[in-house]
Design brief:
Length: 939
């Protein structure tokens, strides 16, 4: 059936600010869906309150509404735009819940709006635990023994009937919020109360716990002809008991028998066909008994999910793009395979490689948090790696995590205490996969590890083989490793860094040089969806060690953009937004744009965003070999946050041109001591400071600058390790702790300006002129990390004199630092005195917010300035903000109820929302203004 011609305008509901459990995978899905609909000549409107995403950018939609996700906002859009249909499946649980709410009050009916991509009744069936259970029984799909409870008494009765251990699953919640396992009767009352209060309908499912069973996810698509295809089967490395968002996952499934797989496929298709008459995407989760392969259904989500983004990147099949076309009436056989360009989209991808996803956690930001993993998701991001084998992909994923690991162990960071290791295996946390390897190294038998972790033996055998390889490697020296054995090590995913550590007394560069001598080179394979059965036309690559290199290097001038790696607190989606605009600007400037990144949730790793995509770790060895192959004009590190910036020194040493601000000047800004010396030279006020490399030196500095002092390390992002201390004892503890976690780092001791306001500026410099992008005034005082503070654009209470000083210092610093591109500066203001706290010559979290508020493509402009193809005077910049824009941080403390929620110099927010007000009399603003007054008076 061709597309529904009555649909000419579609509203896509976004997911709002990033929180744990609902991250930028919906930015990716929503962006892809919007572009897919625009291809069909459909006008696309988007509602989303997240300013940091590319989804809320003019390059994605015809009309972007940066509004709170409420029915009032929806109605405002429906009154302004001639909307024919709403697509709520691209914005996660937030969008689905809002769609239901709008349906319940008759909003869709009132404006004659079609709900496409899902059946509203289907949402009810899947979210209501009892309706879902009954539906599965009706269609002959197995489910765990369970009972619904709407009260404390009903829950107690259900527990008595089913028996322990139990799992509590609240209805209508996201990422397992409020859910959990109950192993003993004594724990049940508190867990039941939590679940009932977490559910908006005060409803929980009390269910038999199938702990230790294997867990699988299937990603499906269905068209209006009831054709259903399975895009990807994902196996959880971790057994049931850990939220899929916190589990290591593998595709394709590694340990499924063919009989079990076919049975699971049939059940998934039956489930999708049973939940309403709609066309679109769906995620189904199953649990499999490892003893007899009995299958039970866990849940079904009639929308794109975190796993949909992963499956799209894993297979090359753009699920959200095709789902959007199905939602407007197309059938699968009418659509083109986006990779081959010759076959239809009515096919199931075949993989001749393995992908591994590892979640990224930020427990360091939540001091005192319970790090044990369970049903409530705690990961803040994830990485994906592609290899020819499971173990190669697993090692590459470990290198991608941004946790200073060289791979799976063999890097000097192993745990050696057997008691601690075994506790970690029994009580899973972020490092369990590393501790499995540590256990094997200490001689713990495989069967003992299997019993305590319940991880499938096949996976454990793969990890155990690494220990045997390392034992063999230690027999050699670098110059006599047999070539075949060296090649085996590289094919098993070992980095040069790991090999150098295992050999001892040789450097990573020595290992690199030796394998090059032996002709052991990384080659690049194309992700092609059909195991090379048909030619692929999409430049989407991963590396391995074989003979044939499928990445053909063009003779065009090229620019490589280094991505930001996994999302984490302090480095979020705003850097991916910057990278995407960098790619677009490089293309517009006539360069072949090449992206290197490993985050499956993001738009930058969409295969049609760059001219060429390397889905690889942003890890030195991988980046180096891509550069050697492609020979670019230069590399952009300014847009990818700390992940990319930390490559700058090594890139310079290799003779690679850094596009934009030089390494020396970026390093000057990062080195807190040298930067303060620069401020002194420029006669720019700054807090008294000193630099220390030991606790003794720190005490001496503190006595000179005076308490309270701000203690912080150099070269970190998101306020990592910062603290405010008021006496010698606290200072000594803080410095010792920092040097333990960041050995060799300089510690900067600043006098802390109490009762000071905080403000910041962002600017672009082309070497001659400086354009102030925007200046913001913070609500929270100095001492609260800028990422955790509400910020108002433009300033509302800073005097003209203060603002002039901020502008003057920004211009002076931009020129002194030889900035080419972006510069963010943070200020402390006391009365009419303005002090510079720090300057960052790179993209910041605030630039996307300012760009959205003023409706100016600032990253695009900055990239062209960096590339030297334009000067600032070439652009006519017209700001469109009438009134004020407010950046409001969003936190995920509900995931960690046990932690201290007090804000300080170390960032804790996971995302942000934007709000516009016409004037300062707005009630929302008055509340913020009162809050600011209270803070300053109380300090």
């Amino acid at each position: 059936m061709p597309r529904n011609t009555s649909i000419n305008s579609v509203l896509i509901i976004g997911s709002g600010p990033i929180v744990i459990g609902q991250a930028c995978e919906f930015d990716y899905s929503g962006s892809q869906a919007a572009l897919s609909l625009k291809e069909e000549g459909i006008k696309v409107s988007i509602i989303n309150s997240n300013p940091a995403t590319i989804m809320t950018d003019k390059v994605i939609a015809d009309h972007v509404y940066l509004l709170p996700l409420t029915c009032e906002s929806i109605e405002k859009i429906l009154q302004e735009q001639q909307i024919d249909a709403v697509l709520p499946t691209m914005g996660g649980q937030t969008a689905l819940n809002l769609c239901i709410e709008a349906s319940n009050i008759g909003l869709w009916e009132k404006y004659n709006i079609k709900v496409i991509g899902v059946d509203v009744a289907a949402i009810e069936k899947t979210e209501n635990r009892e309706e879902f259970r009954q539906l599965m029984v009706d269609i002959g799909v197995g489910v765990a023994n369970s009972k619904i409870a709407n009260s404390f008494l009903e829950g107690k009765e259900a527990a008595q009937e089913i028996g322990f251990p139990l799992v509590i699953r609240p209805s209508y919640t996201l990422a397992g919020t409020g859910g959990g396992f109950v192993h003993r009767k004594e724990e049940f009352d508190a867990a039941l109360n939590r679940g009932l209060h977490a559910s908006p309908t005060h409803e929980v499912l009390v269910e038999q716990a199938v702990l230790g069973w294997k867990e699988f996810e299937l990603e499906l698509l269905r068209d209006s002809n009831d054709n259903v295809i399975i895009i990807c089967t994902i196996e959880n490395f971790d057994p049931m008991g850990i939220h899929t968002g916190d589990s290591i996952t593998v595709a394709p499934g590694m340990t499924l028998s063919d009989k079990c797989y076919q049975d699971m496929r049939n059940q998934a298709i039956r489930m999708m066909r049973s939940i309403g008459n709609f066309a679109g995407g769906c995620n189904v989760q199953f649990s499999v008994n490892p003893e007899n392969e009995d299958i039970i259904a866990i849940e079904i989500n009639p929308r794109v999910s975190r796993s949909s983004a992963l499956a799209s990147k894993a297979t090359g099949y753009p699920i959200a793009k095709i789902a959007a076309k199905l939602a407007i009436g197309y059938n699968l056989d009418e659509l083109q395979n986006q990779i081959t360009k010759t076959t239809s989209a009515y096919f199931e991808p075949t993989l001749d490689y393995v992908i591994v996803k590892i979640p990224r956690f930020n427990f360091d930001k939540f001091k005192g948090a319970n790090k044990e993993l369970g049903l409530q998701m705690k990961a803040v991001g994830e990485v994906m790696a592609i290899g020819r084998t499971f173990i190669e992909a697993l090692q590459k994923a470990c290198q991608s995590l941004e946790t200073n690991r060289g791979g799976l162990g063999a890097d000097g960071r192993q745990l050696r205490n057997l008691e601690e290791i075994m506790h970690s295996l029994e009580h899973p946390s972020a490092d369990r996969v590393f501790h499995i390897k540590d256990a094997f190294e200490l001689g713990v038998p495989l069967e003992s590890i299997r019993k305590v972790t319940r991880i499938d033996k096949w996976f454990l055998v793969q990890i155990q083989e690494l220990v045997q390889l390392e034992t063999e490697l230690r027999r050699y020296q670098l110059n006599n490793i047999p070539r075949d054995f060296f090649l085996t090590l590289k094919q098993k995913g070992y980095s040069d860094l790991q090999i150098s550590w295992l050999l001892g007394n040789v450097s990573e560069d020595d290992v690199y040089a030796r394998r090059k001598e032996l002709g052991i080179n990384r080659v690049y394979k194309m992700v092609d969806t059909c195991a090379a059965e048909f030619p692929a036309h999409t430049p989407y690559y991963y590396s391995t060690f074989e003979d044939e290199n499928e990445s053909v290097v063009s003779d065009k001038k090229k620019i490589i953009v280094l991505g930001s790696g996994p999302n984490r607190i302090g480095q979020g989606i705003e850097f991916d937004y910057s990278c995407v605009h960098g790619l677009i600007a490089a293309k517009e400037a006539g360069y072949e744009s090449i992206m290197v990144n490993c985050n499956p949730e993001t738009v930058s790793t969409d295969f049609n965003m760059a001219d060429k995509l390397y889905f690889e770790p942003v890890f030195w060895e991988h980046v180096r070999e891509i550069i050697e192959l492609e020979k670019p004009e230069g590399v952009i590190v300014q847009l990818g946050g700390q992940t990319a910036l930390k490559m700058a020194e090594r890139l310079q040493a290799l003779g690679v041109k850094i596009i934009g601000t030089s390494f020396e000047d970026m390093d000057l800004a990062e080195d807190r001591g040298r930067f303060s010396d620069l401020l002194k030279e420029l006669n720019i006020p700054y807090p008294k400071y000193g630099v220390a490399t030991s606790a003794e030196e720190a005490l001496k500095v503190a006595s000179e600058v005076g308490y309270p002092v701000l203690v912080r390390p150099s070269y970190v992002l998101g306020g990592q390790g910062m603290s405010i201390v008021i006496n010698d004892e606290d200072l000594e503890k803080a410095v010792v702790n920092l040097l333990k976690n960041l050995p060799g780092n300089q510690i900067l001791i600043d006098h802390f300006l109490d009762r000071a306001e905080e403000a910041e500026s962002d600017s672009i410099c082309d070497g001659e002129d400086v354009h102030i992008i925007g200046m913001m005034e913070h609500i929270e005082p100095a001492g609260i990390h800028s990422g955790d503070s509400s910020a108002v654009l433009p300033p509302f209470s800073l005097s003209e004199n203060v603002q002039q000083k901020m502008e003057e210092y920004s211009i002076r610093l931009a020129k002194a630092l030889n900035v080419r591109g972006l510069l963010n500066i943070q200020f402390a203001v006391k009365g009419e005195d303005v002090y510079v706290i720090e300057a960052n010559p790179r993209a910041s979290r605030t630039v996307p917010f300012i760009a959205k508020a003023y409706d100016v493509p600032y990253i695009n402009i900055a990239t062209k300035v960096m590339l030297g193809v334009n000067k600032l005077k070439d652009f006519q910049i017209e700001r469109k903000l009438k009134g004020y824009a407010i950046k409001e941080p969003v936190f995920s403390f509900s995931k960690f109820p046990e932690v201290d929620k007090q804000l300080g110099p170390e960032m804790k927010s996971t995302g942000e929302a934007i709000r516009f007000i016409k004037d300062l009399q707005d009630p929302y603003f008055r509340e913020l203004y009162n809050k600011k007054s209270m803070f300053l008076n109380a300090q």
